[in-house]
Design goal:
two-stranded antiparallel ribbon, globular, calcium, about 30% helix, Translationally-controlled tumor protein homolog, 3 helices, Translational_control_tumour_p, single chain, alpha+beta, Metal Binding Protein, Guanine Nucleotide Exchange Factor, Chain A
């Protein structure tokens, strides 16, 4: 299984067990499912838990949410009250990504900048429909999904 992490914070964001699509070579669109399960129970497609410990039948709390959020311990953030604040965050985060890209793959910087501008226009157009999540560290300097 491949785990995708934020390059800035190192937080787990998602894994390849989810349906995903690479949009314009710069951003992953990952499909999540709304699930209800016992609290702390991690369910990943293709994962077979050990049968060594049987269920003791105790009552446990139930949690509901998007599987990707629950499985990767993402935390909802309300940091962006409007498009302007989200746009400022994006500009800052993109600068950090470009710096990392210049170190690891300088030939991809121009493609990234061009395609990311196009993708971000689409994302900003859907701003009111979006929920935002950070990684487990809740570091808003890192990726906000």
């Amino acid at each position: 299984m491949r785990i995708y992490k934020d390059i800035i914070t190192g937080d787990e964001m998602f894994s390849d067990t989810y349906r995903m699509k690479l949009v314009d070579e710069v951003i992953y669109e990952v499909k999540a499912k709304l699930v209800t399960r016992a609290q702390g129970d991690i369910q990943i497609d293709g994962f077979n838990p050990s049968a060594e410990e049987g269920d003791e039948g105790t009552d446990s709390a139930v949690e509901s949410g998007l599987d990707i959020v629950l499985n990767h311990r993402l935390v909802e953030t309300y940091a962006f009250g409007d498009k302007k604040s989200y746009t400022l965050y994006l500009k800052d985060y993109m600068k950090k990504l470009v710096a990392k890209l210049e170190e690891s793959a300088p030939d991809q910087v121009d493609v990234f900048k061009t395609n990311m501008n196009k993708v971000m226009k689409d994302v900003l157009g859907r701003f009111k429909e979006l929920q935002f999540f950070t990684g487990e560290s809740m570091d808003c300097d890192g990726m906000v999904a």
